Amino acid sequence: MQIEISRDTFQLAQVFRISRGARTEAKVLTVRISDGAHSGWGECVPYARYDETLESVEAEIAGLPTQFSRVELVDLLPAGAARNAVDCALWDLEAKKAGKRVWEYAGLSRPGPEITAYTLSLDEPDAMRAQAAKNAFRPLLKIKLGTPDDMPRLEAVRAGAPNARIIIDANEGWSAEVYADLAPHLLGLGVELVEQPLPASDDEALLGMERPLPVCADESCHDRSSLTGLRGKYDFVNIKLDKTGGLTEALKLRDAAIAQGYKVMVGCMVGSSLAMAPATLVAQGAMVTDLDGPLLLSEDRQNPLRFDDAGVHPPESGLWG
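RESULT FIELD:
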């Protein structure tokens, strides 16, 4: 088995800001695995929030043995970006060897399109209103917040897109007091969900707190082992393959979360269509899908995912799976 790793950069359509910083490009690792007759590939986005860099993730992958199975991979790499790229490449490879699509090979139902959120990056209120107006035709907008001055931004977005559904992502930027104060106002503006309002290290404050606005665990939820620490704090979990360590664990986390009474959101880092492709399988039937990464890029992979009024469509075989 041969593993090739490459670094790829995709320019963004515009500057993308969250409460932790800004970027103008998406830097990803692409992994290709070949058995001599077939090859599969996958993509991951190393994330500094989880102490990942391109160099550290590449080193993790390069340190793998020459022979291992997808089942054995879970014991070779921890949940995270490195395992994600390898796991998804192995799914692609195994499906090709079997002459099936990944969804068939995994025993899943045929996937269809899912309405996806479109993310508006953090900016001054006037700029966010302009972003919202430009994208008011989209059914679901996601707003990056997490600062002391969030209400003017949200009000500006609502003014720019009066008919769109809205969810917000605070990216760990609030305190318990700020969330409690903002929640009624957010509801009044039609916000349906807030992601990770408090830092993952301080989310105990959510225990017993009235949550008139559903709260989704993002940075607090990585894989199935996270679920025991979420009880009483969160209503949703956000499943991202770069957190779970690939499609294998993401599917298991989805089923476990639903069984424990959580609603499911399927999200992404800012990456190409290759990164989103496996996640479209996890997103089938999810309450919220947020797989807009390719829409934020000015360039993408060949055979990219298709986005239209029906949402984000599953990948064609020329891309993945």
